[in-house]
Design goal:
The protein is an alpha/beta fold. It has helices spanning 8-15, 17-21, 28-36, 184-192, 230-242, 256-269, 286-292, 328-346; strands at residues 44-48, 61-62, 72-73, 77-80, 94-102, 116-120, 132-135, 139-144, 147-152, 162-163, 174-176, 197-201, 205-211, 215-216, 227-228, 245-252, 272-276, 297-300, 305-306, 312-316, 319-324, 356-361, 372-382, 385-390, 407-411, 423-428. The protein is built from eight helices and 26 strands. The strands form seven sheets. It has a six-stranded mixed beta sheet, with no helix packed on it. Strands 16-13-17-21-20-18 form a six-stranded mixed beta sheet, sandwiched between helices. The protein has a five-stranded mixed beta barrel with strand order 22-24-23-25-26. The longest helix has 19 residues, at 328-346. The chain starts with 7 loop residues before the first helix and ends with a strand. Bound molecules: ligand LQZAQKY5 and molybdate ion. Pathway: Cofactor biosynthesis; molybdopterin biosynthesis. Its cofactor is Mg(2+).
Length: 432
Amino acid sequence: MTSQQGSESSAASSQHDNGKFNRRPITPAAAQQKIAAYVQPATLEEVKLHEAGGRFLAQSVTAPHPYPHFRRSGMDGYALQAADLAQASSDHIVWLEVIDNIPCGYTPSHEITSGYAARIMTGAMVPDGADVVVMLEMTELRTEHGRTWVGIKRQVEQGKNITPIGLEVQEGDLLLQQGAQIGAGEISVLATFGVHTVPVYRKPRVAIFSTGTELLGVEEPIAPGKIRNSNSLMLAQQIAAAGGEPILLGAIEDKLELARTMMMNALEHYDLVVSSGGVSVGDYDIMGDLVRSGEVEMLFNKISMRPGSVTTGAVKDGKLLFALSGNPGACFVGCELLVRPTIRQMMGSQHDYLPQWQAELGREYVKINSFTRYVRGRLEMENGRLIAYPALLDESNVMVTIKDSDCLIVIPPTSEPLAAGTIVQILRLMDR
Ligand SMILES: Nc1nc2c(c(=O)[nH]1)N[C@H]1C(S)=C(S)[C@@H](COP(=O)(O)OP(=O)(O)OC[C@H]3O[C@@H](n4cnc5c(N)ncnc54)[C@H](O)[C@@H]3O)O[C@H]1N2
Ligand code: MOO
């Protein structure tokens, strides 16, 4: 904040000017490590399988039975003994008597011995004695006096069209590791093995509030000097996508007392607290003042990164507080780099940080900085090469290009512009 009426936080900030201007930056990796040391794992709950999507498994799951657990036909056809077709050819048809009919879901009523076959459908249980299923299209039928024979004119290799027991999974195999995120494939595994309620980590309840006397509700008409509070809702979406349960506490004016009440209430009632705004050095940067006041233990209040250099982390009674910048670009990046991993760690994820890839820079990047930059960018595959295009407008206070980005391009501290084609690290933005 720069200009406001009111004197409360102005007075407060002047008492703290020393601490305010003397911030010691730590690296983004050091900030992530500091936070990780305070993460408390969420408690467990059992959820119904159809509601488990996106959650993280709290216990590993092993197979209670093999899969498939019976020999399964892969085709509609006839189950028989391959050796019976040894003489079959285009000139010699082999006839086998059909003694059983096995639809899906039924068990065979006869063992197959030499000279006999069973009609069988895809997915049905192959009878004992049979070692091959011959497709319907390769057979013909003859019926006499109420008895039926199947005729086959070619040899078929033993085992053809039969899925053996345990082909996919043996009994006792590890199916899913603790910490695995439950998606469609995992749900399919759990359903197959009868796991109808799933032990998962509780979704952390993440309180969100914004500070700024300029902030209007989204539904309010625009007014001079005012802006709508987009950060709270942007954060709610990021937090939900990361797996947390966002709790929107609204916005407060830039008044230290309001911020104190909001922050203490949020820390008391929720698992994690995320605020936006008021962390810089201005007269009304109340979150910075609050964190420096000693009421919470400050972990850092400057990170050697842009955007989001003013991102602040603190802890109180074991609960983490992230005071993110009000600038939308910095707020977004701070959430992706710090809040998202925290939520995922709380939920037991093994993959907490954004995945890192390499790409070629799509156009030159000329800004020079002593801090690492996380530039929002767009990935394209061109002639088999992954190209990352930095957004044309990537300043911390730019909002509109966040939506166009699917990665953050990591520009290390550099004194030279980076040429197009330079190999850069990128962090993939997930869950969008
Ligand atoms: N003298 C200095 N000024 C600034 C410095 C500095 O080091 N010295 N740092 C700059 C940097 S870098 C950043 S980043 C910003 C950080 O500012 P704050 O985090 O304190 O955020 P505010 O001042 O409250 O707001 C910044 C900007 O964002 C808009 N905003 C705030 N909340 C929301 C919201 N909920 N939704 C949408 N937009 C929001 C606000 O109106 C401002 O335009 O400080 C620099 N200044
Ligand atoms: O901290 Mo600001 O977002 O670096 O630009």
